[in-house]
Specification:
single chain, alpha/beta, Ribosomal Protein L15, Chain: K, domain 2, Four Helix Bundle (Hemerythrin (Met), subunit A), 4-stranded mixed β-sheet, 10 helices, 39% helix, nuclease, magnesium
Length: 340
């Protein structure tokens, strides 16, 4: 069998086809394009011939919901919800994070990561986490991002925590005054859930949604949620690190605005979801994670929709202690000096 050769200096047809088949970063849907989440409870989710369908656990006529998996960053499954394996497989193919929430907002997360991701950001996260100096530098950048300004040189991590605590107290006081709430104290007690005031209930619900969005962005970048820089001791430490960057701006004002709500948890979820596209939160989280981990390098793909030409960037490489990385998909068994 012969292969037609192209013009001088041009690859053959077979070589061109091989190049097209090689996975590149441009083939991966940008997580910034998925801007929303969906919360469901007391529902059953199945896969049919055209996509995912949700319908009440107790059958009811004309009550079916088509789930737009390609447009979702995460799917929150509340109490009484069941889902089939084919439906989970569809979510996995679209890279949608599944977040299971139990009674009284006690959370467990089940992350689904699609195949073919680059490990660049995972390696950057692990390298910074494993080096005490780099880890401290990332933590300092996180606090600076929360404060909205650079920190004075020489500030210790303990001092940063103290400054953040003072900042949160001041934020609580300002919001309580604006909404005439009176004195506010943050509480979270799953064992005595119903005794909490509407602001705390709304804040817990909104934070749950924020954790799901942050978790989805972390997984979409290929990072791991367990390697945190400020938080530690939990498999979701990095989720809490990233979510904390936005609470004072997003979930706290929302929760205080619902201080008179009769159903603050549901109202908080609906309000947060309706404003999510306005927040442009997903591309912002992706951009912030990239800048936190590699502040001096241009990101591989811009989070705000920059159409950088990535066609020549291959995702699969081989590690070499001397050369760094070498091309994958190549047989290195020929022409070696030790061959006989």
């Amino acid at each position: 069998m012969t292969t037609a050769a192209g013009p001088p200096g041009q690859p053959s047809t077979q070589a061109a086809r091989r190049k097209i088949a090689v996975p590149t970063a441009a083939m991966i849907p940008r997580i910034g394009d998925s801007l929303s989440f969906l919360y469901l409870d007391m529902m059953r989710i199945i896969q049919d011939d055209t996509g995912l369908i949700a319908f009440p656990a107790q059958p009811a006529p004309n009550r079916r919901l088509r789930i737009p998996t390609a447009a979702l960053s995460c799917l929150l499954l509340g109490p009484g919800t069941s889902i089939t394996v084919p439906a989970l497989a569809t979510l996995a193919r679209h890279g949608t994070t599944v977040v299971c929430t139990g009674t009284a907002a006690v959370r467990t997360y089940a992350g689904i990561v699609g195949p073919g991701q680059s490990s660049r950001w995972l390696e950057a996260q692990a390298a910074a986490w494993a080096d005490p100096e780099q880890r401290l530098a990332v933590a300092a950048r996180m606090y600076a991002l929360r404060f909205g300004q650079d920190l004075p040189p020489g500030v210790t991590l303990a001092q940063m925590r103290g400054l953040e605590g003072q900042r949160m107290k001041a934020t609580y006081k300002i919001l309580a005054t604006q909404h005439r709430v009176g004195r506010f104290k943050r509480t979270y007690d799953p064992d005595d859930w119903d005794s909490q005031d509407p602001v705390n209930l709304a804040l817990s619900a909104a934070n749950t949604c924020l954790y799901g969005i942050a978790h989805a962005a972390i997984l979409a970048l290929g990072c791991t949620p367990g390697l945190g820089f400020v938080h530690t001791g939990t498999t979701h430490a990095f989720v809490y690190d990233i979510a904390d960057l936005y609470k004072a701006e997003l979930t706290l004002p929302l929760a205080f605005s619902l201080n008179a709500s009769e159903n603050p948890e549901a109202d908080a979820r609906r309000a947060f979801r309706s404003k999510l596209r306005l927040f442009r939160l997903m591309p912002r989280i992706v951009r912030d994670i990239q800048n936190l981990l590699l502040p001096d390098q241009t990101p591989l793909a811009a989070a705000d929709g920059d159409d950088t030409d990535l066609d020549d960037i291959q995702l699969v490489h081989l590690w070499d202690p001397d050369d760094g990385t070498v091309a994958g998909g190549t047989n290195y068994g020929y022409g070696q000096p030790w061959q006989t």
